[in-house]
Design a protein that fits this description.
By secondary structure, the chain is mainly alpha-helical. The protein has 16 helices and 4 strands. Strands 2-1-3-4 form a 4-stranded mixed beta sheet, with helices on both faces. Mean pLDDT is 79; it is low at 396-400.
Length: 400
């Protein structure tokens, strides 16, 4: 059998069996529910902090409508104006949360408990402007000139170091994606290790190796399980992104699509790098109970990488630690997407770290294949890496 055929056969087996597995369906559903809760609950509990509903009671309050709309637009918020039938009805709507505030007869503001600072400032400013316009008009000044004097055009702003207007959206998407990446890499890396141990303990691997070579089995397993992880990541991402867009929680500029592509690329590299080592960790033991000890170094490496990435996201991505970890293959998959989204990594650094990651991944896969071949058929006590290496080097398969 050709090498590519063996890899394809093994990969198809892993893909079909794992997508049918109940754990895959449950984990996908649970992740989607959690992501949906994170997106929906702030809307249900806190509402939109940039949108306020204000009731206008009485003719004097109605005259404040244009000034309120203008002041809100200048402040970067939105005010939806309502017209309750009377003060009692307005109080009921404020008490029930339908209105954030009401203005009664242009003389007083009614809120449920404490007025929102931004909303109160907008109302007070609009009221002051409106009363000043009325007072000046009563003294015979032209209303159009009065409005121009009291509401001059805002001063233009010039940025010395302009930022990408889409950077916030791109960084938010990248940050959420890094959380998902961490979960996917560690989860499916452990899936590779667990699958290797299960096949070894049940001696299924002996049947498989009668058809394919160890290198084909390892490559097919890594690729098949990786495709399952990529499929799940895409499902979660599409559902979460669609929900966030439908609720208006985020906007999706065209540039953000590039960020999503970058995240997927680094998932593939990070998964290939770690899953090969997880396969080795599974091949050197014979029972699931021993798997945790053999995978602990890899898990700790991933956890450390994740914390460095989080520090980069929330504490500044230009620190010395972040810059150094950008070029380290174990940490690069979680850090580089964030730095690219933030726009603070030069192109030459992206090129260097990509090449380093690619070369390291290829080397890890080659080394892992040899150790895997020397350890996969050895049962009993935990196999030393040096023994597995020598066994594969001399082409011997010795039971422990």
């Amino acid at each position: 059998m050709r090498t590519i055929d063996g890899i394809r056969l093994t990969a198809r087996r892993e893909l079909v069996e794992r997508t049918r597995d109940r754990s895959f369906l449950i984990s996908t559903a649970v992740t989607v529910v959690i992501l949906a809760a994170v997106i929906v609950l702030p809307k249900l509990l806190g509402g939109d902090s940039d949108t306020f509903d204000v009731g206008l009671v009485g003719p004097a309050s109605q005259r404040l409508g244009p000034a309120l709309t203008a002041q809100a637009a200048a402040a970067g918020v939105k005010i939806r104006l309502q017209s309750p039938a009377g003060e009692a009805e307005a109080d009921d709507e404020v008490r029930g949360g339908k209105l954030d505030a009401t203005i009664v007869d242009g003389q007083r503001i009614v809120v449920k408990s404490t007025a929102n600072d931004r909303l109160a400032l907008i109302i007070q400013s609009a009221s002051g402007t409106s009363r000043a316009q009325e007072a000046l008009a009563a003294r015979g000044l032209d209303p159009a000139e009065t409005r121009t004097i009291l509401a001059p055009s805002p001063l233009p702003v010039r940025s010395i170091e302009p930022t990408d207007k889409d950077s916030t959206a791109k960084r938010s998407i990248a940050t959420i994606a890094v959380f998902l990446l961490y979960g996917q890499i560690i989860g499916y890396g452990m899936g590779v290790a667990s699958g290797v141990v299960e096949e070894k303990a049940t001696r299924v691997v002996e049947v498989l190796l009668a058809t394919v070579r160890p290198v084909q089995l390892l490559a097919g397993k890594v690729i098949g399980i990786g495709l399952v992880g990529l499929l799940q990541l895409l499902l979660i991402g599409v559902i979460g992104l669609g929900l966030a867009l439908s609720l208006g929680s985020i906007t999706l500029p065209a540039a953000a699509l590039g960020t999503i592509g970058i995240v997927l690329l680094w998932f593939v590299l990070g998964y290939a790098f770690y899953s090969s080592m997880f396969a080795v960790a599974g091949s050197v033991v014979s029972r699931q109970e021993e798997l945790q000890n053999s995978t602990t170094p890899l898990t700790l490496m991933l956890v450390a990488s994740f914390f460095v990435a989080i520090q980069s996201a929330f504490g500044g991505s230009t620190s010395t630690l972040t810059r150094v970890c950008t070029f380290l293959p174990p940490t690069a998959p979680l850090i580089v997407p964030l730095r690219i989204a933030a726009g603070d990594i030069p192109g030459w650094q992206v090129a260097i770290t990509f090449v380093l990651m690619l070369v390291s991944t290829v080397l890890v896969i080659l080394l892992a294949s040899r150790v895997y071949a020397g350890a996969i058929l050895r049962t009993g006590a935990r196999v030393k890496l040096s023994d597995a290496w020598r066994s594969a080097t001399h082409g011997r398969r010795q039971p422990a």
